[in-house]
Amino acid sequence: MKIDLHIHSVYSDGALSPEKIVDIAIDSGLSAIAITDHDNILAFKHAQAQARLKSEETGRPSPEIIPGMEVNTIFNNEEVHVLGYFFDFQDKNILDMIAYQQHARIEQITKIIEKLDKIANIKITMDDITCYIQEGGSIGRPHIAKAILKAGGVSSVIEAYKKYINDSSPTYIRRNTISPHEAVETIYEAGGIPVVAHPHSLSKPEDLIKELMNYGLRGIEVYHRRHSPAIIEYFSSLAETYNLIMTGGSDCHGAAPGGGVHLGKTHVPEWVLPELKNEKNRLEIASS
Predict the structure, then answer these.
(1) CB-based contacts of 159: which residues, under 8 Å, 6+ apart?
(2) Domain 102-164 sits in CATH 3.40.50
């Protein structure tokens, strides 16, 4: 069983459509995928429809589409990403959280556009940025970088990041997000499984994981393409110590350096998905 539970589409900062993601997953022999766009759930229905279509066309089963999302939060001036799986997409608090996060993104980028104009004399509009995202998708730094490049403000996307949209740049404004505690609690109360994403990026992961367990945290993303064997071993041990489930995925955003895609290329043990589903069943029984 090959699975990938961390993928991004054109509804956030990914380069692939949900349909293309499903097609690649089929070609790669994956049995289950989760599209976990940043603060967005719109890709799910498109991926489901594509999976059904391909199954009808070929007569063979398509990958199972696992409901998912990645919530971007900030805590102690550090970005903390929270993955959620199997939550109720119609839950009011989930929808309110997404609406808040989307508003925060628009507010942030509006201020960045103003600063780019005043400080760097780079003139771009919101339309210049949103043209790089699927309608209803989550706008973010990659789309700003592309707009700056197109406006002639830099010679590459990498230069745009370094000069204008890194955390210390005078033209960058940090987003007013919810806290990871709120994200975990909202996902958990919507019947979902909250998981700390790519914990290698956190300065004090164990302290935060222990704290978030009080709000309903149920897992750690142990398997990630940027996790070395030593990091995997460390977070596996941490998950066992605190009785948390382990998840994993490629964190694919599209084309990988040198061609190809990361989708499905990260080793995730076959027992991860059954454990995730067992946890979902346990939570359902506990809440009934």
Answers:
(1) none
(2) no
Give Cα separations from 4 to 26, 100, 143 (angstroms).
Answer: 12, 28, 25
Q: Which residues contact 144 (CB under 8 A, 6 or more apart)?
A: 109, 112, 124, 129, 160, 164, 165
φ/ψ of 186, rounded to 5, equals -65, -45
Kindly list the domain boundaries of the chain, sorted by start residue: 2-96+176-287, 102-164
Per the document, the length of the chain is 288
What's the token pair of residue 281? 């069943």
CA 129/CA 192 separation, integer angstroms: 32
Does residue 1 surpass a pLDDT of 90?
A: no
Measure the CA–CA gap between 144 and 138, rounded to whole angstroms.
Answer: 12
Residue owning tokens 């780079």:
122
Domains 2-96+176-287 and 102-164 share a fold: no
Q: For the beta carbon of residue 226, count every other beta carbon within 10 angstroms.
A: 11
Name the class of domain 2-96+176-287: alpha beta
CA–CA dist 218, 142 (Å, integer): 30
Structure tokens at 273: 């998905």
Asked if residues 39 and 9 have their Cβ atoms less than 8 Å apart, the reply is no
User: What letter represents residue 169's amino acid?
Assistant: S
| Neighbouring C-beta atoms of residue 76, cutoff 10 Å | 11
pLDDT at 256 over 80: no
Q: Are 240 and 180 in contact (CB under 8 A)?
A: no
Round the average pLDDT of the chain to a whole number and report it.
96
